[in-house]
Amino acid sequence: MSTRYGAPQRYPSQASQYRPSPAPRPVSTQYGAPQQQQQYYSQPAYGAPPGPPPGADPQLWQWFSAVDTDRSGAISVTELQAALVNGNWTRFDLDTVKMLMSIFDTDRSGTIGFNEFAGLWKYIQDWQNVFRHFDRDRSGSIEGSELSSALRSFGYNLSPTLLQLLEQKYASGPSDRYGPPPGITFDRFVRACVAVKTLTEAFQRVDTDRDGWVQMNYEQFMQIVLSAP
Predict the structure, then answer these.
(1) Residues spanned by the domain of 128
(2) Which pLDDT value is given to residue 178?
(3) CA 105/CA 204 separation, integer angstroms
């Protein structure tokens, strides 16, 4: 099996709408695009950092400054959740935000600095590319065959039973009359793919002879399950 399981892929042959934009825009309907206030694009607020670090993308620094609402120089879980939105303008699921923090908080400070934020921003853009590629009906969510196609592209051939369980677990709640049809929104799609990747790799570490069968005790089983996103 490929070690790329669950990693976002680029689709250069697709139309430009599937590619991440070269730089963030002040107002965007992109999945995962931070919300922001126009004041951050005029004069910096009192107490704001004087400017980006040497070599930093100025526009990315503007995004970071907009998300860092308390001007602490780092982004907390609360600030990150307030900034990230799905294509239907719902905020990111808190569990997904915590997962992103755990991936990019490399110094385990409990917050994300600018360099860590730069990595997170690229990660989200790459996943945007994947999501748009597989959201073939442009519904703003992933369902059924779209989920199956996405996972197969990562090397995961899940059974119909497992696909149904996955879709039920990560689907958003019932929509109201103004909302999109039920399905897996962008934030939950990322978490579902990362969960499949994490659990598969955990299983492979135990399945040393690669025959698809393992023997494990209760402690090992619980460690694998509780470590999943």
Answers:
(1) 58-227
(2) 56
(3) 26
